[in-house]
Design goal:
By secondary structure, the protein is mostly helical. The chain has two domains: 81 residues, Arc Repressor Mutant, subunit A; 146 residues, Four Helix Bundle (Hemerythrin (Met), subunit A). Helices cover 64% and strands 3% of the residues. It contains 13 helices and two strands; from the N terminus they run H-H-H-H-E-E-H-H-H-H-H-H-H-H-H. The chain has a two-stranded antiparallel sheet. Helix 7 packs across helix 12 and helix 9 runs antiparallel to helix 10. It is elongated and about 70 Å long. The chain starts with a helix and ends with a helix.
Amino acid sequence: MTSIVKETLLAIDNRSLVDKVEESLVNLLQQQKLKIGDSIPREVDLANMLGVSRTVIREALLRLKMMGLIETKKKKGAIITSPDLFGNLSKSMNPHILDQDTLREMFELRLVLEIGMADLLFYRLTKEHIVDLKEIVQNEPPATQYHLFNIDHEIAFHGKLYEITGNQTLKKFQKMLLPIFDYVHQSGLLKTQPMLKMFVSHTELVSILENGNPEEFRKGMRNHLENHFNRLFE
């Protein structure tokens, strides 16, 4: 079999008709430059445009509705909407149904996000935020070299950091990441360190926020998360 024939066979599109129409509908709506709140063409018109039956159009539209891309309004028919990205994503963010590679990558993603939020924190930080953070760390037990992760402490302290950024997308994402982070920590997916080292604590991070700058916070947060990184790379 020649390489040209092989390439032709590999190029065969084995998606269903509804799959293809779904993609075509998204492209069509983009081409028409429809905005949130705009009505989309009627089923019969879409069927004529794409040369398929209304049944196929109806099923493809149902998929777009389930994705939150469109919704039905009285007297307006189907209109463009802004999808609830995290509402859709949260349904699949169950650690029990994700494969090990994805779980590990989600674990890594949370580490990267928290190091990278420094500039947002310092831009939006207030004296009231510092007071709140100090109150949070006062309720934590003393740091110990045997302590690596407690989800209640993580939610309280790191959740407050996400709140301070003022970025609601980050905040929603963090709520989904923490259970996965806890699951990976407990699951044995990462190697267990026989002896943990003591690095920058939550209390020290608060001090950096109060008296330091974004670069110092980035270094401090990277140091704070060192035990987690060691479990990934060592």
